[in-house]
Each structure stands twice: as structure tokens, then as C-alpha cells.
Amino acid sequence: MSVKAMSPHELAQKVFKNEKLFILDVRNENDFQEWKVEGKYFKYLNIPYFDLLDGVEEIIDQLPLKQDILVVCAKEGSSMMVADMLSEQGLNVSYLEGGMKAWSEHLEPVKIGQLKSGGELFQFVRIGKGCLSYMILSDGEAAIIDATRMTDIFLNFADQQEVKIRHVLDTHLHADHISGGRKIAEVTGASYWLPPKDADEVIFDYSPLENGEKIVIGNSTIEINALYSPGHTIGSTSFIVDDTFLMTGDILFIDSIGRPDLAGKAEDWVADLRETLYLRYKKLSDELIVLPAHFMIIEELNSNGSVSSKMSDLFAKNHGLNIADEDEFRKLVTENLPPQPNAYKQIRQTNMGKITPDEETQQEMEIGPNRCAVR
For residue 24, what are the β-bridge partners? Predict the structure, then answer.
């Protein structure tokens, strides 16, 4: 039987549609345990490639005979070879095109909806890493929020939609992934906005994103209103868009809340985080739709692949928003935290403009899941 390549887009659609898939991951066990392709109805078998050099006969009885099998490795080559061997045994098998490297970099644009003032809002789901970026379009103009370093997808999407990118914003100085905001601004001539309290060490020019700043997109006066919301970083800033959506950056997620330790200031920023979540956000409308900058688990995805929830639902269900005791809250966000993101110090330095790693180094720096939440 012939071996087919499954593109990251095809795999992402299987995740979005909750399809069944059996994945044979031939990376080392540690790599697999730390980070893998996730799907609600996916099943897995992890056998390192080196254990299969002499053939696949010994694992055939561990594989489904009547189900699609996807072989996954780091960059593609090993999975192609294993897929060939399985195909020779008569199994229906494919391999992930580009491997986990490509999976980490793939983004899927998902339409969130029409804006009441006119225009549209799109979410870009980086399905393999849990990053979420946004584009607001109106009257031939666009603004991009929390762009990843894969800038071509945003530039190409803007071209397809026939809009001019006027503004690029980051909710904070990111530590888990390299921002594409500054690069997009340089290419398009757009303004690049960054919270000044996160920008003490940056070595490039930027537009300071202060509390209360209003950024208008298009002639239909869609407003992006900046709300200072520290806690994940000292400068973290949320955006209220069209009085309908709240972009929370890494402060509030669907299933968790942001961690305050990635700049080494956990104890200092706990009070800020609590004030943002329990006072600043509590004053906002319960009807706002929360759009975070990350998701942690596949169950956070909606039926169309988007990630969002009403503020009222989060105050009812999100554990991080329902801790009355301040000491208990402090322990939650400072103790027993997940491992810190891969190369987060170097990523912060890159986002400050202090270092400029080559493309391959940037890919390696970002490998692995995001770890911006407290759990």
C-alpha cells in the first residue's frame, strides 16, 4: 500500500472535528511524554525509531488493522521510513509532513465572528503549541494582536482579505514564544505597540501601550481599548475590542490563570495578578467574550477549533477565579508550578531585541508545549 504524507493542516482538521486517529510516535520516550500531537479521540503508541531499525514485525499486534495510522517523528525522515515498513506489512499508514517541527509552527485561521461596529475578527490557532493570535479587519485596515514569528501567514492572510496592516500589538513581552509583531511592523510600516512597563530593556523603537489607549481600526470606528492588567508580567495589558471581546493575553485562560514567575518576580507580582483577576476583571461586563493568548488542553477548543468563553462562565467554572483565601491563591501561583518554558530567558532576550538567533535556533528555542499557566 502507498504511504501518504499528512499535512499539518489536515491533522489540525482532524483535531478540530474530533476524529479518531492512531498515532505511532517514534521519538524518544522523554520527548513524547513532554509534548505530543493531541486530539480528543487520538490513541498513541510510542516506540523509539532506533528500536524499529530491524523491522516492525514485533509491534504489528499493537497497531490497529482497520484504522488510519499516523507515524510521527521530530522532523519527518524517521517517520517516513517506519511508515514505509508498515505499509509493506499491509497497514493503512501515513506520516506527518515536516514532523513535530512543522506541527509546532502551523497556524489555523478561525473566524470568531462579525463585529457589531462592522468588520471581522479572526483567531489564529497554533494548534501544536497552544498559542493564539488575532487579526481585526475593518474597512480595508487590520490590526494584529500577539503575532507569532511565523509572520508570512499573517501577511498572506491580510493580502487575501485585501487589507492594510496598520497596527501590531503585543499584550506583554512574551517568554514562551518569539513575537512576530516587530517584524510585521517593519515589513508593513504599521505601528508596533508594546506595554512600556515590559519594555525597560528593549533596544528598538515602539509605540507605548498605556492604560486607556484607544486604537481605531477602519472608518467604522472599531476600537481597541487598552486595560492595564499586570500579574503575568508587570506590563501585561488586556484589550477590550468593540465592547464585545476581552483579549486577556496570558493573564486569564479558559481553564486556568497566568503564572507570575517567568521574569523571576513571582512573589512580587502575586498581588498584581490577584487584583487584575478579582478586581479589574470583576468590574467588566459578564457578557464579554474572553479571548486568551494561549490554551493548555485540547478540551478548551470549541467545536469550530476556536478558543473562547463568556466572562460569566469563567467566573463560574475557572478555579483560579474562585479562591477566596489570599494565602491559598498565593500558593497556587507560586508553588508546584509546571516546568518553565523551553529557553524562556533567551526568548525574552530575543523579544527585547538583544539577541537575533538564526531561524533554526529560533525553532529549537520554541520546541515543546507552552507553559504560561499555573497548572
Answer: 45, 71
Q: How far apart are CA 196 and CA 352, in angstroms?
A: 12
The three cell numbers of residue 139 are 474597512
- Count of domains in the chain? 2
- Residue 256 near residue 375 (C-beta atoms within 8 A): yes
Spatial separation of the C-alpha atoms in residues 207 and 213, rounded to whole Å: 11
Is residue 237 within 8 A of residue 212, CB to CB? The reply is no
Distance CA 351, CA 345 (A): 10
Q: Which domain holds residue 41?
A: 4-103
Q: Which residues are CB-neighbours of 54 under 8 A, at least 6 positions away?
A: none
| Angle in degrees, 0-180, between the axes of helices 359-366 and 344-352, rounded to the nearest 10 | 130
Indicate the Cα dihedral angle 261, 213, 217, 111, nearest 10°: 30
Closest by CA position to 122, among listed 164, 150, 158 = 158
Bridge partners, residue 238, by sequence: 227
Q: Compute the distance between CA of residue 268 and CA of residue 234 in angstroms, rounded to an integer.
A: 9
Other C-beta atoms within 10 Å of 272: how many?
A: 21
Given 73, 107, 217, 296, which residue is catalytic? Answer: 73
Q: Confirm whether 73 is a catalytic residue.
A: yes
* Residue 230 and residue 197 in contact, taking contact as beta carbons nearer than 8 Å: yes
Query: Rounded to an integer, what distance in angstroms lies between the CA atom of residue 109 and that of residue 129?
Result: 15
Which is nearest to 179 in space by CA: 218, 206, 159?
206
Helical pair 326-334 and 266-275, crossing angle rounded to 10 deg: 130
Model pLDDT for residues 29-73, shown as the tens digit of each residue: 999 999 999 999 999 999 999 999 999 999 999 999 888 899 999
159 and 93 in a common domain: no
pLDDT tens figures, 103-128: 999 999 999 999 988 899 999 999 99
Q: Residue 286 sits in a domain of what CATH number?
A: 3.60.15.10
CB 144 within 8 A of CB 154: yes
